[in-house]
Amino acid sequence: MRKLLTLTITGVAASLALSACGGSADTEVVSSLDPANPQTITVGASPQPHARILEFVDENLAEDAGLDLEITEFDDYTTPNIALSDGDLDANYFQHLPYFESQVEGQGYEFAHGEGVHIEPYAAFSEQHGDVAEIPEGGRIAITNDPSNQARALTLLQDAGLLEDIAEDASVLALSDEQNPMGLEFIENQPELLLNDLQDPSVDLAIINGNYILDAGLSTTDALVVESLDGNPYANFLAWNTASEGDARIDKLEELLHSPEVKAYIEEQWPSGDVAPAS
Predict the structure, then answer these.
(1) Quick count: other Cβ atoms within 10 Å of Cβ 66?
(2) Is pLDDT above 80 for 3?
(3) Which of 106, 205, 235, 250 qualifies as a FRET site for 24, CA 20 to 30 Å off?
(4) What is the 3-state secondary structure (H, E, C) of 170-222?
(5) How far is residue 250 CA from its own chain's centroid?
């Protein structure tokens, strides 16, 4: 049955872990599965919704498929890929394609990935205002320091009418006065810390990743701006080392994550659209 471990890594610990990152460790590849003798697969995931979805798979679908999921939870976005590269995980499930590609390019990871399983729409919240139209000139906006998600956040602000003519690879530092006509001030922070910024009375708007919205007990129904699901390129997927290509455990888990049962679970668990099936 499922074994759950939660790992927390921030600040200096994250830096040390990143500096220790190397190539992929030797990987055992399982050629076949037998429901009478389930094979363990260790998967790293964000607590919500990823680990909850994996728990559903483990408790309802995995045993009959010959799998036993061991789920390791991470509360940041850096460590799961380090652990995967080092061979401490067989797969991870927490990231979308732009982040995955930036990590592979920046860190030299030899990873492959599956199809999108679900989308968590990005959303902007405020403790100071009830409508995005109330954001003042020079308003202070808390935003992620992760480049792939920062461009996503700036696009969300453009959709809300607060920025103009944002490029696909936009960043806070590259914004021109024409793109930022309201002279908004940006406060960059790690994604997992933006909820703290939301509580700061000097912050007019905080843009939060979907998994942290769920962790905080919030909902996109409380947000001032919510990312559209139509044509959304930020579906989260299962990732694994290229050395694990053809591993029956990964192939089967990928199949189960795209099953009608998982789609129905996501729709029933998050009916307000905080999490939506990717297809």
Answers:
(1) 18
(2) no
(3) 235
(4) CCCCCCCCCCCCCCCEEEEECHHHHHHHHCCCCCCEEEECHHHHHHCCCCHHH
(5) 19
